[in-house]
Amino acid sequence: MTTALIIDDHDDIRVLIKYVLELSDDRTTVVAEAADGQAALDWLQGSATDIPHVVVVDWMMPGLNGIETSIAIKADRPQTRIILCSAFGDDQLHEAAADAGIDLVMSKEQIGEIPDRIRELLAV
Predict the structure, then answer these.
(1) How far apart are alpha carbons 41 and 93 in whole angstroms?
(2) What sign does the CA torsion over 5, 40, 15, 48 have?
(3) Element (H, E) at 58
(4) Is the pTM of this model over 0.90?
(5) 3-state DSSP assignment of residue 115
(6) Residue 89 burial (CB < 10 Å; 0-12/13-18/19+)?
(7) Cross-sheet strand order for the sheet of 81-86
(8) Which DSSP category does 116 fall into?
(9) Which of 1, 36, 103, 106 has a CA-to-CA distance to 65 between 20 and 30 Å?
(10) b/e map of 32-67 (b: 16 or more CB within 10 Å)?
């Protein structure tokens, strides 16, 4: 069973990602959702048993952005795979994501491909 944490400040995007993950692969379960980076980090601090295999995180959010959130997650849980989703992207974002230990950067237009990318990341 693959577990996932979804972090995005837009409710509709979180619902869409959860829907895509859980309907496309019966081996993936969303264990938590968070509307911002700090809420996700708080959940992770309080969760000793539901350590997600993968985190899907938005880049631009109020408070901690996706890069900052990912750095904090990787510092505490280096084995967790992270996919950064963004409506915007450029070479600097990809470079910052790589420096933060993020495994993959995707456009929000590619949300339907997230289950396939998760399977690829976890197969490595």
Answers:
(1) 22
(2) positive
(3) strand 54-58
(4) yes
(5) helix
(6) middle
(7) 28-34, 2-7, 54-58, 81-86, 104-107
(8) H
(9) 1
(10) bbbbbbbbbbebbeeeeeeebbbbbbbbebeebbbb
Task: State the Cα–Cα distance between residues 90 and 101, nearest whole angstrom.
Answer: 17
CA-to-CA separations, 90 to 14, 27, 33, 60, 121, in angstroms, rounded = 23, 33, 26, 13, 22
Backbone angles phi, psi at 64, to 5 degrees: -70, 130
Q: Is 22 helix (H, G, I), strand (E, B) or coil?
A: helix
Output the tens digit of pLDDT for each of the chain's 124 residues. Answer: 899 999 999 999 999 999 999 898 788 899 999 999 999 999 999 876 668 999 999 999 999 999 999 999 999 999 999 999 988 767 888 899 999 999 999 999 999 999 999 999 998 5
Helix H segments across the chain? 11-24, 37-46, 66-76, 91-99, 114-123
